[in-house]
């Protein structure tokens, strides 16, 4: 019998119904419990993944499983009823979920990173953070992020009124928008003294003037329900304005947000590529003596290992409670770019190894081949990452402030 060699730091099964799982973690660590719970619900996620991908419908059953497993409160501090998961823990969680369903991993990562940033704010005693975290832990509050579409140049505008702001605009790529409770979003405001500014706001999706518009019919990640959200004369009180930032730059608060968010999101894409790799190894077992097959599998393994090293290195630099930092921000961006580049190459190679059977709808590899493409769209894009890193090294003005 021919056996296969696992990816370094991973376990591997030749059973086609399973995929690689994270290496053994200390039993007492939050990540160990989170990954074990994610593995346990994996079959339920996988059972419905192909149907939601084909129909372009939201991964409802997966979210029910995540809720039942208590995974939506993973990043809530222990004293507030959560698991106290770190950024590294959450990246491992999303990676494991993606082995069963990439759309579930990516969509839920949007909630996880907002909760993780709210926990960061809570540790600094910032207003509203504790109340939000308690609602996540106790009431199942689900947070929707529009940060990827907003970032340095948000869509939409806010106008100052008594007691708060009136906002309007249209937000794109709002994952889990039909399932979420509150939107974490950004809008611009014209300040008579400071010029154009960016306001970070929390807006309930049930608020008057908020409409989710079914627009999500994409190449991949079709189960994320990343629809548009329209805001039409929505009132946002002052206490729901979480930050007032400069427009067009990656200022210190945004450096922290990105340092937390993108390693978690990148974990999901690593998991997608690993799922394609594991399936390719299973299929390739029948041709294990073919040198071309051997080399291709070796190349896939190499690229996955380097991508994981990049993510691990960024996580080590970022730490559990990051302060604003150019270097941390650029590390998160570099890791994301490497994961995107390697992930796409791995999924392409998996298609080559598997051949025609992977070309059919419903194939794990075919779905991963499409899902992984979304990795390049999150800001900064891989090319923009190179540009920003070069500017920073040369002392040329760029996005970083």
Key words describing this protein structure:
401 residues; alpha+beta; Butyryl-CoA Dehydrogenase, subunit A, domain 2; 3 domains; 8-stranded mixed sheet
SSE layout and pairing:
Blueprint: E1 10-11, E2 21-22, H1 30-55, H2 60-68, H3 87-98, H4 102-123, H5 129-139, E3 143-145, H6 147-150, E4 157-161, E5 164-174, E6 182-191, E7 195-204, E8 210-213, E9 227-237, E10 241-246, H7 252-284, H8 291-318, H9 326-354, H10 364-371, H11 382-394
Parallel strand pairs: 3-6, 4-6
Antiparallel strand pairs: 1-2, 4-5, 5-9, 6-7, 7-10, 8-9
Helix pairs in contact: 1-2, 1-3, 3-4, 3-7, 4-5, 4-7, 7-8, 7-9, 7-10, 8-9, 9-10, 9-11
Question: In short, what is this structure?
Answer:
This protein has eleven helices and ten strands. The chain has helices at residues 30-55, 60-68, 87-98, 102-123, 129-139, 147-150, 252-284, 291-318, 326-354, 364-371, 382-394, and strands spanning 10-11, 21-22, 143-145, 157-161, 164-174, 182-191, 195-204, 210-213, 227-237, 241-246.
Uncertain runs? 1-24
How would you spell out the order of helices and strands? EEHHHHHEHEEEEEEEHHHHH
List the total number of helices. Answer: 11
Q: How does CATH name the architecture of the largest domain? A: Up-down Bundle
Q: Let me know the largest β-sheet.
A: 8 strands, mixed
Distance between the termini: 58 Å
Structurally, the number of domains stands at 3
State Rg.
21 Å
Helix content: 40-55%
How much of the sequence lies in strands comes to: 15-25%
Mean pLDDT score:
93
Write the CATH fold name of the largest domain. Butyryl-CoA Dehydrogenase, subunit A, domain 3
Report the principal-axis shape: globular
Number of β-strand runs? 10
Which CATH top level class of the largest domain fits? Answer: Mainly Alpha
CATH level-four homologous superfamily name of the largest domain: Butyryl-CoA Dehydrogenase, subunit A, domain 3
Helix/strand structural class: alpha+beta
């Amino acid at each position: 019998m021919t056996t296969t060699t696992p990816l370094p730091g991973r376990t591997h099964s030749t059973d086609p119904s399973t995929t690689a799982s994270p290496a053994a973690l200390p039993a007492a660590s939050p990540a160990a419990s989170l990954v074990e719970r994610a593995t346990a619900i994996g079959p339920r996620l996988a059972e419905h993944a192909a149907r939601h991908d084909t129909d372009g419908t939201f991964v409802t059953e997966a979210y029910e499983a995540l809720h039942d497993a208590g995974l939506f409160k993973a990043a809530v501090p222990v004293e507030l009823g959560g698991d106290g998961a770190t950024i590294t823990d959450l990246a491992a969680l999303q990676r494991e979920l993606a082995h069963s369903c990439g759309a579930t991993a990516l969509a839920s990562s949007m909630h996880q990173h907002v909760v993780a940033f709210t926990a960061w704010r809570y540790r600094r005693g910032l207003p509203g953070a504790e109340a939000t975290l308690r609602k996540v832990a106790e009431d199942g509050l689900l947070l929707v992020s529009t940060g990827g579409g907003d970032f340095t140049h948000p869509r939409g505008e806010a106008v100052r009124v008594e007691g708060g702001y009136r906002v309007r605009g249209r937000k794109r790529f709002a994952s889990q928008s039909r399932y979420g409770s509150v939107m974490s979003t950004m809008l611009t405001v014209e300040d008579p003294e400071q010029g154009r500014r960016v306001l970070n706001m929390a807006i309930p999706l049930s608020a008057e003037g908020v409409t989710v518009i079914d627009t999500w019919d994409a190449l991949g990640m079709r189960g994320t329900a990343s629809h548009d959200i329209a805001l039409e004369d929505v009132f946002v009180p002052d206490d729901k304005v979480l930050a007032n930032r400069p427009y067009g730059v990656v200022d210190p608060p945004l450096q922290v947000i990105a340092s937390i968010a993108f390693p978690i999101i990148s974990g999901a894409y690593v998991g997608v590529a690993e799922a394609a790799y594991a399936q390719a190894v299973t299929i390739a077992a029948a041709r294990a003596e073919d040198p071309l097959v051997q080399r291709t599998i070796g190349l896939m393994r190499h690229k996955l290992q380097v991508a994981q090293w990049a993510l691990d290195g960024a996580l080590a630099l970022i730490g559990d409670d990051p302060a604003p930092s150019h270097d941390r921000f650029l590390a998160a961006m570099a890791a994301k770019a490497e994961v995107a580049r390697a992930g796409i190459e791995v999924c392409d190679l998996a298609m080559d190894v598997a051949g025609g059977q992977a070309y059919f709808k419903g194939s794990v590899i075919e779905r991963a081949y499409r899902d992984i493409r979304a990795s390049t769209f999150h800001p900064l894009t891989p090319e923009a990452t190179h540009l920003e890193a070069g500017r920073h090294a040369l002392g040329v003005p760029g996005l970083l402030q």
